[in-house]
Amino acid sequence: MTISFRFACGLLLLLGLPGTLRAQATLTPAQYQQDFDYFWTTVNDNYCYFDKKQTDWARVRELYGAQVAGVSTRAQFVRLLENALNELCDNHASLSTNLPDSRRLVPTGTDVWAQFEQGKPVVMAVRPGYGAERVGLRPGMEIVSINEVPVAQALPPLLGRTLKTVDAAARNLALNLALAGDHRTPRQLTVRAQGRLRVLYPDIPTAQLEQRDARSLLESRQLGTVCYIRINNSLGNNRLIAAFDSTLDALANTTGLILDLRDTPSGGNTTVARAILGRFLTQEQPYQRHEFPAEERQFGIRRSTLEIVSPRPRPYTRPLVVLVGHWTSSMGEGITIGLDAMRRATIMGTEMARLNGAITSFRLPNSTFGFNIPTERLYQVNGQPRENFVPAERIAPDPQGTTDTALDSALQRLHAPAKR
């Protein structure tokens, strides 16, 4: 996934939170209309997942196009486009700017992942080291209300107004957007656990999700004879290549490696990904397949490609386990499906972020800020959609939050005799 302005297949533009608005000369109504038309047409012609969405994109033009005449400020226009883009119910589609009360990005700006189970909104995972974990939110708890608004009332404003039907994917995304909150309002979460209600304040005293990540690019340690490397949300930073190489070289004599990708929500770029993948290979292999629907729609000619990884010096050939979870996103997902396709690693953990495809970034001609939408479908080498991948060994998180069950399982596998 190479990164440029026009072509960005990861979430490199979204490392951390989107940029805040900057002062700009007021645009004319005609300029706002031109920008909206460019936005709508670009999405219409290039977005590659309409077939699995319930969105009536023609209705989006009618509904939001009618509101453009009332726009007189940049902030109003940003909010209009946020609402229009939200109609896709796709957390891999975003603006490159935001308002103070814009929703945080999912999964980059979240610390809790929930979904509906038998009609109830249930916490599935909690991001280690952030506010939700700190205040005691745990998997298995039921979300009752968010900022004193019952879940049933909090979701409709986040579901969009042009959906033909509200499917499970749209409901779950709306739930996670509601749990993420916005950039300025401290969250109050009321949960039910073991029949009792608890009120939790994950953003007090500090809204950790608003702070830039100051950690090192990666962390490593030796666990007995096993090497453990954790990537700290840095797959878009080319400096990670040298850091990863030197770390792996220093631990080359270990009997196995655990590569932890569970905190890579901001995506990255294909240069870093291929650098990491190349350290585990001794011959060239494909790691993912790309498909370009816009070209087929325009010309009737189907186009798809396989992306190849080449081996790099000093390959690590010992057994490898990759840990993944709900905050393994975009390029982290790409590395995972690549190692799985190459039969080079055992994948352990939960389902990943399930982001749709590869994104391209476009810029509005007058407002000048950008928007990002999936324009390429991504597949495993065997032809299965990347977003449908699940680990071969699914490891549920510890509901008490006291044990890293996935890491323990990985250590047990690498310390056990090899099975053929």
Structure, explained:
This protein is an alpha/beta fold and 420 residues long. It has three domains: 12-98, 2-Layer Sandwich (Transcription Regulator spoIIAA); 112-210, PDZ domain (Pdz3 Domain), CATH 2.30.42.10; 218-357 and 374-413, 2-enoyl-CoA Hydratase, Chain A, domain 1, CATH 3.90.226.10. Helix content is 26%, strand content 22%. The protein has helices spanning 29-46, 57-65, 74-86, 131-134, 151-154, 168-180, 239-250, 270-278, 293-299, 331-341, 405-415; strands at residues 19-20, 94-95, 97-98, 112-117, 120-126, 142-146, 149-150, 189-193, 196-200, 218-223, 226-231, 256-260, 285-291, 304-309, 320-324, 346-349, 358-363, 370-379, 393-394. The strands form five sheets. Strands 10-11-12-15-16-19 form a six-stranded mixed β-sheet, with helices on both faces. Strands 2, 13, 14, 17 and 18 form a five-stranded antiparallel β-sheet that branches. The chain has a four-stranded antiparallel β-sheet with strand order 7-6-8-9. Helix 1 packs antiparallel against helix 2 and helix 8 packs parallel to helix 10 (331-341). It is globular and about 65 Å long. It starts with 18 loop residues before the first strand and ends in a 5-residue tail after the last helix.
State the fourth-level CATH superfamily of the largest domain: 2-enoyl-CoA Hydratase, Chain A, domain 1
Please tell me the overall pLDDT: 92
Judged by helices, strands and strand pairing, the structural class is alpha/beta
Helix run count: 11
Protein name: S41 family peptidase
Keywords: Signal
Signal peptide: 1-23
Domain Tail specific protease: 204-396
